[in-house]
Design goal:
ABC transporter ATP-binding protein, Alpha-Beta Plaits, ATP-binding, about 525 residues, ABC_Transporter_VariousFunc, 14 strands, four-stranded antiparallel sheet, ATP binding, Rossmann fold, alpha/beta, 3 domains
């Protein structure tokens, strides 16, 4: 007894119903533990984890079904291994799925026998049987044989067996299985009511976290036999999230500002979808989004985001970098002392919002101007000379062609518009190649500096900058232009030969080179 008192003092067991110290059970292929955690009295606790994480092993040990584990499990300050199982289990209610297929006994008679085994006196047993059969809507079937019950009715009978004991600790392992959505919801409502009236400590083992998320106070997360987390919902930092879609062209920054100021978290604004993800805290609901009406923003659709073990793992990884809302929440407006503080917060939020709006407008303007240049690049009527001029325009606007900074934008445009844009990289490569060759030739021609050479350079410049219609005009040049024509044709043939080795993506460029070759043949006069 002294040992029990010492443990109670050391572990503060007036607060905790169950204390687990260094629990460890070894199997051939896996180790469960060692881990330690505490379960608070009167709270709804969820034990979560993937299949094989160790949930069932721990529950069986907690119930005393197996005692071959290392470490200690204290239940109300008593060591599970050292105390009588009947004494400890008399305060525990456990939900299990009995089939009842071979039970010809009626529901009422069966529950009477169960109450007798549990040590509940006859008068109290009759009252409880009637109460719980009515609670689970089985009173009209009390004289029906259990073997004739449907799966849903059998499952409700299993729940009655757990509740009729009115235990101090209740363990529910997938209580919603074999129940339709209506009865799953009712079962959790009954559980909450029982918890509130009796201060019963409830341990839930579930896979569908969404259905019970609002009911859970504390989480115990197991994965591959190890304890990932044990603590409150607030400490976990997991929120019930909904994805909200708005009417066309809604100001998402204004949405964030309005919701954040009312202490509603926002994540991942998406201007393409015109949507945002909203994180709802325990006392918040979809109805709280009605505050958006004050800024004339209309909600179109709401989709609930699934809470699963993967989302919880992601939350645990993000705990080191907690989410910080874009705008500061306002204090309680009903408290006079906070009015001045709220004005300062409101002013700061307004400044931040205006700054964000200006930044968005500037970014939008730059995107429009840039898209115009990209649209011209994608124009099939462009010759290679025009493409060089357009690339120079991009460089003048600090768009670094050499480092291929526009690749991402081009590839995004290609997905939305046309497969032709897949050739953009090859175009830019050809542009750079021609620019490099033109520079080399220009240096070589400058060294010669003969009158005829200067004439040739001047004509070449005019041909390079003139439009397609101007190119078709007859130019008067010296006979030496035949040599220039041959050089240009040779350069184009060289480019064509190099591109033949490329894949099908270079086909458009090859066609363009042929077109340029034909234009040169038509434009430059033949020598006599």
């Amino acid at each position: 007894m002294k040992h029990e008192i010492d443990i109670r003092k050391d572990q503060n067991l007036d607060k905790y119903e169950i204390v687990v110290e260094n629990f460890h059970k070894k199997f051939k292929d896996i180790n469960i533990g060692p881990f330690s955690f505490k379960i608070e009295k009167g709270k709804v606790n969820a034990i979560l984890g993937s299949s094989g994480s160790g949930k069932s092993v721990f529950i069986n040990s907690l119930l005393g079904a197996t005692l071959s584990y290392k470490g200690t499990i204290y239940i109300n300050g008593k060591d599970r291994k050292k105390y009588n199982s009947i004494e400890i289990n008399s305060k525990i209610g456990f939900y299990t799925q009995m089939d009842f297929s071979l039970y010809p006994i009626s529901a009422y008679a069966f529950l009477t026998n169960i109450c007798n085994v549990m040590g509940i006196n006859a008068n109290l047993a009759n009252d409880r049987i009637e109460f719980w059969l009515k609670k689970f809507d089985l009173w009209t079937s009390k004289d029906k044989a259990l073997k004739d019950f449907s799966w849903g009715m059998k499952n409700r009978m299993n729940l009655i067996i757990c509740f009729i004991k009115e235990p101090q600790i209740m363990i529910l392992d997938e209580p919603g299985s074999n129940l339709d959505s209506n009865w799953r919801s009712k079962t959790y409502d009954i559980m909450n009511e029982f918890n509130a009236t009796t201060n019963c400590t409830i341990i839930l083992v579930v896979h569908n976290i969404n259905e019970v998320y609002d009911n859970i106070d504390n989480f115990i997360i197991l994965e591959k036999g190890q304890l990932l987390f044990s603590g409150t919902k607030k400490e976990l930092g997991l929120y019930k999230k909904i994805k909200v879609f708005f009417e066309t062209n809604s100001d998402l920054d204004l949405v964030e500002k309005t919701l954040n100021e009312h202490d509603i978290l926002t994540f991942e604004p998406n201007s393409t979808e015109n949507s945002i993800i909203v994180g709802l805290k325990k006392n918040q609901s979809f109805d709280d989004l009605s505050i958006l009406n004050s800024v004339n923003i209309k909600v179109k659709t709401v989709i609930s985001q699934q809470i699963n073990i993967d989302e919880i793992k992601k939350t645990l990884k993000d705990k080191e970098r907690p989410h910080i809302p874009k705008y500061l929440p306002l204090s309680n407006l009903n408290v006079g002392a906070n009015v001045k503080n709220n004005k300062a917060i409101k002013a700061a939020n307004d400044d931040k919002y205006l700054s964000s709006q200006k930044e968005t407008e500037m970014q939008h303007f730059e995107e429009i101007e840039y898209d115009k240049l990209l649209t011209q690049i994608f124009d099939e009527e462009n010759d290679l000379e025009t493409l060089i001029q357009l690339s120079n325009s991009l460089q003048n606007d600090d768009m670094d062609i050499e480092d291929m900074d526009i690749d991402t934008i081009l590839l995004q445009q290609e997905e939305a518009k046309s497969i032709k844009k897949m050739k953009t990289k090859q175009k830019i490569k050809d542009i750079k190649e021609i620019k490099t060759k033109n520079k080399t030739e220009s240096k070589a021609m400058n060294k010669k500096t003969t009158p005829k050479d200067n004439d040739v350079v001047e004509v070449a410049k005019k041909a390079k900058t003139s439009k397609t219609t101007d190119i078709q005009k007859t130019l008067t040049v010296p006979n030496i232009q035949q040599e220039q024509k041959d050089n240009k044709v040779a350069k184009i043939n060289k480019i064509k030969t190099e591109q033949i080795n490329n894949n099908d993506e270079s086909q458009i460029i090859q066609n363009r080179i042929e077109e340029m070759k034909n234009r040169l043949n038509k434009t430059l006069p033949k020598s006599k």
